[in-house]
Structure formats: C-alpha cells, structure tokens
Backbone:
C-alpha cells in the first residue's frame, strides 16, 4: 500500500513538472518584443502576428516605410512615432463599400495596410502622406483597413492627401475602411481628397476617425480640416464619412458615441442628383442600426462650393513662399517648425524634433578629497528633472615643484622667463601662483615672466594651487654701466624716460 502511494506521488510530481514546463515556455514567449528604433519597426513586417511594445519615441525621418498587414499586438506604451512619411501602397484587397454593393480592388495606405489585431497607446506625430493613384484607395494614420481589429488610446496628427483618378477613394484620421473598434483616440489632422481629372467620376469618403465602415467608435476627440473636390458623391463626417451596410447582409449594431468634434470641411460635389453628405458626426448612415449618441460639437462648419474651377486645396497660392518659425523642443514637448504662407495665411507644422531638457549647472553633492571620490549631479534648468549623476574623481595632490633656475642676475628693466615642473603629472590641480617678495626690485606675471624693476635682491616664489608644493628663485637686479651713467651722471628725466 505504501509503495503504491509513493508511486502515485511520483507520477503526480512528474505530471506536474511536465505541465509546468510548457506553461513557462509559453509565458516567456508571451513577453513582447521591445522596439526602440526604426529598424525594429521595419522588422515587424517579417512577423506581423507577433507581440510588440515600444520602448522609446522613434524618429521616422528618412525611413522608407512600406505598409503591411498586421495581425498581432502593438502597445505603444505612450511613446510616439514622429515624422512618418506614407508614400507607398500596401496590400490590395477586393472589398465592397458603396451603395451599389460592388467589389473594388482597393489598396490601403497607413502605418499598417490592415489591422486584424490590436494597436494601443500609440501616438503618431506629424504623419505626412501624399498619394497619387489610379486605383481605389483608402488612406489613414494607423490602419488603411481595420479588419475587425481594435485600436485604442491612440493619437494621430498630420496631413493626409489623396490625388485620385479612380472611381473610389477615402481617408480617415485613424482608419480608412473598417469593421472593428476604435476607442479613446485623438485626431488632429488635415485631410485632402481631390480628383485631378474633371471627367472622372469619383465617390469619396472623408472622416475624422473613419472614412467608411461599420465600426464601433467611442470616446474619440477630433480636430479636423477637411478638403474634398471631386466629380462624384461626397460622404464627409467629423467622425465617420459613411456608415455602410454590412456586406454579409447581417445586421450590425455599431455605434458612434461619446466623441467630440472641432471640424471645418470644404468640399465640391458634381453629380446630377446632388446628394452631398457633410455632417458633424456621420456623413451618411446606410446602416439603420447605427447608434449615434452622446457626441459633442465643439465647432463644425460645412463649406460647399458649386464651382469646380475653384481649387479647394488648402495650400493653393500663386506665391508658394512660406515663412518658417522654429519652436525649440522643451522638456516634455517636441520641437517643430511652423510654415506660413503670407498670401493665404495657410500654415502647417513639420520637421519635428525630440523633446530635450535644458541642462543647468553641475551641483556638487559631496566634494572630492585626496582620500575619497565625490559626487555631483546635473538637472534640467527648466523642470528640475535629474539628467545625470556621476562621481568626482579622488583628488591627486601635488608633491613637488621645481624651477629651471634657482638664482639669476638681471640688468634693470630686463625680462626672464621662469619655467616650473610640477609632479605628479596627473595632479588634479597643477595650476601655479607666482609672487615677488619685493615688487620694487622684480615683478612676476601669472606665467612666470620676471621683469626687473629696481636695483637689489628679491625672491620669486612659485606655489601650486593646492598648496602641496612650492619653489623659489633669487633674483639680483643691477645697473649696467650705461644705466649707471644715465642715472647718476645725466639728468634724471632722461633716466625716467
């Protein structure tokens, strides 16, 4: 009986050990890959299903970014990607997003061409996108296509522009087209959609958060300057451009709630039946089950033009000359340059630089001595944050000081250079102090240069600044025969001269 009990305990222990090993391995594998530079972001494309977290703000200036489909988890941890340029197309997908229920081969441009996973706590600062395309296209800050993914607590600021010759195009601050969830996001963007071919029909979708889709949008804040000039239907919304029907013919109970909007949207639409949609929250609602509630309009303007020849682009000017004003970075604020066109008053920001502290003066906490090291610290002069703390090396005292001459004779008004040797050579303070015992006979400057000033004998002393060593040189000053003759035989004024 006892043997059976021992066997059972042994078997249970082995089973527990086997179970714990893979659990430990899985726990280790679940730890996110921490990304601190642009190279790490680019590497995500090789494993888009992975678990990632940012460990620092990252400057994306000069990075050739190619959008890719992301299905993993990215936690920005409150960090910022800044100066991201979107100039390349991402994946192509056939999707349905208009009232005709047609499928379009569509390309997507954003940080990620599509998001099927989760993106959270990420800030995009100064996104710059200018896309010219003859394909249906959706442009956004984070997800070109939100494929039932989730984007929470993210922010996007910048300028997004599509120049299209295609029959469909759209742009949103957070997502272009999508079905999923966006919560707690903030947008401060300029979005421009323009058709360059006046003979081309183009249906466009413009939204502060989402251009087109059946998504849940909650507790988002939008500041938007929107511009669209197309020959086709326009769907402009401060939050969502078009809330569409479910392509699978299933009822979808989406919502837009708890959001705030500060937006001005200027647009032109040219179709026979003129069905222009431009509203503060959702431009057009095709899904009757969409809930729009609890939103706030800080400010909203809809500016419609009836003249296609009137260019609605924000930066149109006959004199495209911009004045630049640089705002230096602060402790917790990015630096940037503001460009303003004097003719139109249009301005934008660019060239962001990382936050930077202003170093103050070093503060000695513990002075160094010949017996032990000291300590000092450097803090920001503006906010007081500790920037650096370091040890002060132990003091090395001087042990000896010798002069190249210990005695010399100088004629009146002559000069002579004394040279000192201080040991050890790595002494902390080997500076020298020079002094004369009688400046009526000889003076000495801070470099050891002696000048004879009168007949007699004086001593020139040399002492190290730390007081550890000293030396002396005796100086005898005499008159030459010519000087004696001048002083005692000729007139005194000649001597004084």
Residues:
């Amino acid at each position: 009986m006892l043997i059976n009990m021992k066997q059972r305990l042994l078997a249970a222990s082995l089973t527990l050990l086997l179970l714990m090993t893979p659990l430990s391995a899985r726990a280790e594998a679940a730890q996110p890959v921490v990304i601190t530079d642009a190279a790490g972001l680019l590497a995500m494309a090789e494993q888009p299903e992975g678990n990632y977290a940012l460990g620092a703000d990252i400057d994306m200036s000069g990075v050739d970014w190619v959008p890719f489909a992301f299905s993993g988890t990215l936690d920005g941890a409150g960090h910022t990607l800044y100066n991201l340029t979107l100039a390349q197309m991402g994946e192509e997908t056939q999707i349905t997003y208009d009232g005709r229920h047609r499928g379009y081969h569509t390309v997507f441009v954003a940080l990620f061409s599509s998001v099927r996973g989760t993106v959270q706590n990420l800030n995009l600062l100064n996104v710059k996108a200018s896309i010219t395309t003859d394909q249906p296209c959706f442009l956004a800050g984070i997800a070109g296509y939100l494929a039932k993914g989730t984007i929470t607590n993210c922010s996007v600021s910048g300028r997004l522009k599509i120049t299209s010759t295609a029959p469909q195009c759209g742009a949103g601050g957070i997502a272009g087209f999508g079905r999923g969830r966006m919560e707690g996001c903030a947008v401060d963007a300029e979005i421009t959609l323009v058709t360059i071919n006046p003979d081309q029909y183009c249906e466009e979708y413009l939204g502060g958060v989402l251009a087109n889709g059946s998504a849940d949008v909650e507790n988002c804040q939008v500041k938007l300057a929107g511009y669209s000039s197309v020959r086709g239907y326009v769907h402009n919304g401060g939050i969502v451009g078009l809330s569409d029907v479910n392509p699978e013919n299933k009822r979808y109970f989406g919502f837009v709630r708890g959001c705030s909007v500060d937006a001005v949207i200027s647009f032109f639409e040219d179709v026979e039946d003129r069905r222009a949609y431009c509203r503060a929250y959702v431009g057009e609602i095709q899904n009757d089950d969409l809930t729009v509630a609890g939103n706030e309009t800080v400010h909203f303007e809809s500016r419609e033009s009836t003249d296609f020849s009137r260019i609605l682009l924000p930066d149109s000017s006959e004199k495209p000359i911009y004045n630049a004003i640089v705002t230096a970075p602060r402790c917790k604020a990015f630096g940037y340059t503001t460009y303003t066109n004097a003719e139109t008053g249009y301005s934008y920001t660019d060239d962001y630089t990382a936050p930077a502290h202003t170093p103050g003066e070093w503060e000695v906490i513990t002075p160094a001595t010949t017996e032990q090291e000291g300590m000092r610290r450097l803090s920001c002069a503006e906010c007081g944050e500790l920037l650096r703390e370091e040890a002060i090396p132990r003091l090395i005292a001087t042990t000896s000081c010798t002069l190249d001459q210990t005695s010399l004779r100088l004629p009146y008004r002559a000069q002579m250079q004394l040279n000192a040797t201080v040991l050890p050579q790595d002494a902390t303070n080997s500076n020298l102090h020079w002094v004369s015992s009688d400046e009526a006979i000889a003076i000495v400057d801070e470099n050891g240069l002696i000048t004879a000033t009168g007949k007699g004998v004086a001593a020139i002393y040399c002492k190290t600044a730390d007081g550890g060593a000293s030396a002396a040189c005796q100086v005898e000053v005499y008159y030459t025969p010519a000087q004696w003759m001048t002083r005692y035989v000729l007139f005194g004024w000649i001597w004084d001269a």
Notes: The longest strand covers residues 123-133. Residues 363-392 form one domain. Residues 14-18, 23-28 have pLDDT under 50 and may be disordered.
